[in-house]
Design goal:
The chain is 38% helix and 23% strand. By secondary structure, it is an alpha/beta fold. The protein has a seven-stranded mixed beta sheet with strand order 3-4-2-5-1-6-7, with helices on both faces. It is elongated, with a radius of gyration of 19 Å.
């Protein structure tokens, strides 16, 4: 329901911006104005970027698997996300290694036509380049999905990363408390 409303609003906005491009040409606006409007029009077709962050073993990959109803990300008892994975739409399933720490995963999942997902190793990863790549995606993100483990929601590295998100980037954040099965109701 939210996705459909977003797609409808985006289509209406694309129509309005397209009309502005036409109007700018008809009224002999400068080339900078026309180019700015054309860039805006093209960017409306770009997928939204969701970045999933949280501590190692907080349940980030499990959450993505649940959202997509399939084995979307590798999960294990030990940390299984050993690099940054960017999930994008592709007609065929394939992976592209961008670097040792970053892999683009193309999947024929219709949702990915409009939304790209970044699965990160964790805020407390011991590999420094993982943290650097994660913080490189945060400024680009349209939405941050911050996953806390119910077993340890007060981990220092998660809260430090959250402070950085709020103070430095002012991003939209959704909080998810994961792994409720690990705690008793009391």
């Amino acid at each position: 329901m939210v996705v459909e409303a977003y797609l409808e609003a985006r289509a209406r906005l694309a129509g309005v911006v397209g009309n502005l491009v036409s109007l700018a040409r008809e009224t002999d606006e400068g080339p900078e104005t026309v180019e700015t409007l054309q860039t805006l029009s093209r960017s409306l077709a770009d997928p939204l970027l969701f970045v999933v962050v949280g501590e190692v073993k907080a349940g980030k990959s499990s959450l993505l698997n649940a959202v997509f109803g399939q084995e979307f990300c590798k999960v294990d008892v030990l940390p299984a996300t050993d690099k940054i994975y960017v999930f994008k739409y592709g007609e065929t399933e394939h992976d592209v290694a961008v670097s040792d720490d970053l892999t683009e995963r193309y999947r024929p999942i219709p949702f990915l036509k409009n939304f790209n997902i970044v699965d990160t190793p964790g805020t407390n990863t011991i590999v420094a380049s993982h943290q650097e790549i994660t913080t490189g995606y945060v400024p680009l993100a349209d939405l941050i999905v911050f996953v806390f483990s119910v077993a340890n929601p007060w981990a220092a590295s998660a809260w430090e990363f959250l402070r950085l998100l709020g103070n430095r980037w002012k991003k939209n954040i959704v909080f998810v408390l994961q792994q409720a099965d690990l705690r008793s109701p009391e």
